[in-house]
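# nightly structure sweep
# worker-07 picked up a monomer target from the shared queue
# config: single-sequence mode, recycle default, output format = structure tokens
# input follows
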Amino acid sequence: MAGGLIFPNSHPSPTIVPFPLVKDPPLKKLTLLLAAFGLIVAACGGSNALAATVNGTEITAGEVESLIDPTDSTITKEQFAQFLGFLIQWEIIAQAAEAEFGITVTEEEIAAEADDIFATAGAPGETREEFVSARGVTEEFLLRVAEQGLIDAALREEFIKNLPEPTTEEVEAELQSAALAFTQVCASHILVGSEEEAQDVLARLEAGEDFADLAAELSLDTGSGANGGELGCDTPARYVPEFADAVMVAPVGEVYDTPVQSQFGFHVIFVSERTDADPAALPPAEEIITALKDRAVGEQVNAWFLERVTAAEVTVEESFGTWQAVPQPQVIPPQG
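# output follows
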């Protein structure tokens, strides 16, 4: 596992908000939602049977079924629960957005937004019917997604009104992160378990021993150690923060004389080559400020939604599943 020990662990972030509140364009949002669940579903006949209530507002089984492409004859309980969960979350958003901010959208606006999603995401020559059917959903589902996209945009406009401007320090930190992504560093390391061991490695290097030989002998990162400690050439943004910061300031062509501690241990580092980021390639300050504000607004909207989900009075008919508000809002399918 060459270099495996210095890359950060990957922990997928739990989605605490429904799909429409993800900060992505309609194309990406629709693709992500459908890919995430791999839906190939079928609908049975519509039904007025009560499926759930949200703060007293009823959601029928027929409303759920209307979202699912009627390819076969049945809907599995897992598929029904997923789409019922979408409707519950979307209803919570719509109710709270109108009650707190007066946000409503018209049928004309929804239709126009759905047209835009299709125009952006549809394949050349693909009809609207083919577009939704290929994704396991219906025109009604597309309209619901469009509605939620409009509500989401309106919510963001409300939250951004009182959002403070990013500080100079925040902008500088973001610019530095961007520089990491545009820099290329060719580095080697020897990973050991303690600072004392790292100092011993530095002393042996100072005495004339070969870096590659010591890496093969001592490095806990056996993958790169077998290759003389070489990690290849990559952007520092791929490394854990402590290592990334070190390879950005370490002298080129010399062993860095300060052991670097990370979550994996202590690194003795050698940078053989570094190509600094071209200033012209870095995003301008205005773009960074916009990105920071978008991120902050997204976090506020997500937190707002989670609070509304937790506070909402939701009931789900036992035959269709059980409502769960946290840690991730969803309907748990019935057992058996």
